[in-house]
Amino acid sequence: MAAHMVNQLRFLRQVTHASSLLPPLHTPCTMHPTPVEQPSFAPIYSLPVEILSRIFLLGYSDGIDPAYPYKRNVIEPTLNFEVIVSHVCRHWRDVALRTPNLWTSIRLRKPAHLHRSSEFVKRSKCAPLDVFIDTVSINDYVPGSNLCIKEFHDAYMVSEHQSTRWRSLILKVCDLDCKNAARQHLHSCGPVPKLETLQLWHLQDWGTSQNLFTQTAKPPVIILNNYAPSLKNISLVGVNLAWSQSPYVSGLRNLELALHSKSVRPAVKEWETMLRDCPDLERLSLHYSGPRLDDLTPITPIPMLHLSEISLTDVDPDVSCFALRYLVTPSVRSLELELPDQDFSQFADLLADPTEPRFPALERLHVSALECSPDSWFNLLKNFRRVTYLYVDFRRVQFAFYEKLCTKIRYEDQVPPLGALPQNPTSSGDHHDMERKKNPIYSVLLPNLQVFKVAGLESSSLVDFDNFRRHAGYPLDRYIVHKKSREESMDALHALQQLEYYQDSDDEEDEEEDTGLDDELEEEYEEGSEDTEEHEDSIRHDANESIAEDSSTP
Q: Helix, strand or coil for residue 327?
């Protein structure tokens, strides 16, 4: 974040300097003071319009996450890039206004955004649009600060007449009034031939499990006219579809299903059909969702040859096992697990079965929580020999998991596969080979591990782990330690390898970083600010509440 801030400030200084070299505006500007008059032969003024426009687009795209086009990265904590460059001088403004792709991010989170977004839609001309509508419940509504059912229709209608240009559509609702309005609009939606990303989120505090059961059992409606030929990414959080009547759920690259009570999940046959229709799927994320296990008839293996990321959060053990048992996933490189409160030993044993390797190419293992036996954990890691990155939150797993990490293994019990270690003579893999010649007695779990990210582990334990790995000939390149675990004894690792610290976005001691921007400038562009981290924290909070409520649903 600090690096992005520095880059932002450098850019602002460069813009300020450049504006002083350009001819002045001869009409007043409402959002930026008129530059001082300078000679018209300033070198920057001779830059071709096409190049300047391209520079603007590069700067704009630097604040956009390609995977989530509606997001704005923290490079812009309080300012919109497109607004900045359009208020430097008349020439820059003319170029910016004649660059349609600079105005395609339509984000509506408060009333002031309605007019701004309408202007952006006009300026974008025929360019694809990324539309994000974020609403709150009536109980959380603050007039002028956020949107609720009172403004939902107006917010949706800002771009509804341009649905043929939608590239991504993200709707977040937090009560039934907004959800019903969204259902009506999506049911009567115009054609969406360019829509690539669809994210529908319903996050609500239901109060009682009966309310949750009653409301989520409501039959879904047909949306998007059942035709979205370009759709590649779907995220459904607390929203279910008519699974067998949604032909656009095919050919996907990313699929996320979250917060679905058991009665509204896709049946096993629908689940199988959905996955078979997405042979090029690259990422699969399940958060308290997955197939509805009414019919446990075995299915034939489903080849998912391009699947590279899997994330499972609060998925019941039987659903977790069923979801992965029939998938053929030779290319999965990242696995994220947050599976607390129930016994997932059977699931861990499924992944650890050496006769049917589930993820032979796995490189990144992220364990936020996992409840299983220490032996199952040991066998799991023993099977993941190519893993180079490991994250474990020891606040939510047994300490025995750490002890298993420090277990010696005989070479005949674990031999790294051919090609698992790099052949570069200057690489850490070569160093490992040299050390093994000195220590031929035993090997270790995760022999290719390079980065270890941890939380909830005392510094003395981490130092002991580091010593264990070094003495065995498998030293790590880097440790990333949670800020709350920082102790003086941890500094002993500094002399051996790179040590970094991190903190969660919801840590209470999060510190505000000084943007270094003039207060007047911040106020000028206040309407362009977005707080992405706060938004994601609210999703996590609401999601946990929804799961807790549904756990007792009959």
A: strand
